[in-house]
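At this stage, I needed to go through a protein sequence along with its fold in token form, as given directly below:
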Amino acid sequence: MADAIVSGVGLAPKDAISYFRQKVNRQSASFGELEAEAHAKAFSVAGAMSDALLNDFRRNVDMALRGKTTLKELVQDFPALAKRHGWEYHGTPGWRAMIIYQTNLSTAYAAGQYRQMTTPEALDIYPYWRYRHHACQNPRAQHLAWDGMILRADDPFWATHFPPNGWRCHCTVEPVSRRDLKKNNWVVSESPVIETRPWKNPVNGQIVHVPIGIDPGFQTNPGLLWAQAEKERAETALVPVKRVDGKPLLDLPPAKQQEVQAEQIDHLIENPVGAVNAGTLPPEVQKVLESDDRTVRLSDDNLKKNMTHHAEMTPEEYRQIPQMIAQPEVVLHSGENHILLLSRIGKQLYRLIVKKTLNRKENWLLSLEPTSEKKALASIRNGNVLLDLRDTDGGE
């Protein structure tokens, strides 16, 4: 877990990571440009006006969620990161780094926790939730007042008060079973009246009514908004194209196949829900993979992971995936049921990892990244080469 700021959440980070990765970059000059609801879908750092800077912050948060770095290390690296990008920010380095990283980490963990706590199985066992305030240097009086309050899981209170409820808020929510109520002599409270106060957005002057005790910008439940968005997006989830104009995709000329597949990848980038047909393996590659299918699929999850880990890649490069799959220069063994394709677009080489399912019925593109001639040659020298197509395809 990503340090003590989120250690109280108590969940595996899978759902927290999924929440964070579904966000899209949004540049913003200052706090208040994005509505509170937009933060559930957008990754934004006030004052960060370049995708390169946002991508560095994004990679760092993702690494922390996966346990690959710590909050302390991120704070220490912050001045160097800002210097690399020539970024001038407000506040001291330590304070600003904590605000950025702590907010994103705690929000992601909370959204992941909300997803876990709202499954039918969880709600059946734990139909109540308990607000918990944790010791901190500057406790908020209202958050202390909510500590220990138990409400039904479907109480409207949680739509606005599911923590974090402010900058550097350490509050959490714990599930409560009927047995817990009886064992501890706890009582379920009546749904509280939510009082608000007016707040003037410093960017657009709009008056927003924020619940008392909650910092502006935190008056929503990101986990709930994420669940609602996922439900809406699921209705338009993409599926791999198998037929075009009544004809099987594999019966079309290779150029037409790749055109259709590139369009599917475009759609997945725009609406990352579902899976698409990303390419067609040459027969000889299908043979060494020992798969029953020639098509290679790309899922929304693998696309989002790749875009996070290789943020330098452009949409146009993703559009070239069908050509990369159809025209590899070298195919190497990459573990059980996996192959590594080395493919070239112009002068640039790429590494693609393709996996077949255990039943041999499907193939999936797991990752894609640019690579150098030196690294490619090292892979060839040190790896198990299954096919070398450079001569037949006119490669160098």
The chain has 15 helices and 16 strands. The CA atoms of residues 265 and 319 lie 6 Å apart. The first helix runs from residue 14 to 21. The radius of gyration is 25 Å.
